[in-house]
Give the backbone structure.
Amino acid sequence: MNEGEKKCPRCAEMVKADAYVCRFCGLNFAAGFKPPTPAPTQSKSGFSWVYAIGSVIGLLLIARMAGCGSAPDAYVPSSEPIAAIGAEQLASPARRASIKELFDAYEANEMRAQQEYGAQPIIVTGTVRGVDLDLTDDPVVRLEDGEYRLNAYFDKDNGGAATGNLVKGQVVTVQCAETSEVLGTPGIQQCQVIPNSE
């Protein structure tokens, strides 16, 4: 452990010692890390069941935004080529940004970054760190650029099939419809794999 760094108790990544929020998993250090408590198996009234079901749905939504899950390290890709979106689907202008640029923008001012990047198409290139499935079985590609990491969310029925051919360590370019953030950590949504132009 380097001086001036601390380990996140949730994801075990190293972050700056004075960080308030883990940039990898979004843990708020001031609030502390407490493992989730299991839902009660019995209730005294019907309202408790409604509360439990609402809590589960809320956790599912949070997990989708956070890209929970883990990908196997040794992935054997399909022999089929990666399906990429065509030129006609790239008609709307998309802004190109690096993973570091997105992190720097959201770290400096989340509101301004969301106004700048939020609802516009964006193109990002990064190295595949893993491919996960969220709780609805939609693919989540974990991209990295040096020490910076970003989740790219795909729809399994609309361009997500191409993620089945990605390999850990592969450099890939994605175009996504919008950028969002959870606890200051950016994520890109409604993504498609596009050919690398570099």
In short: The beta strands are 5-7, 14-16, 95-96, 122-133, 139-145, 148-153, 171-182, 185-194. The first strand starts at residue 5 and ends at 7. The helical segments are 46-66, 99-108, 110-117. The chain has two domains: 5-66, 87-194.
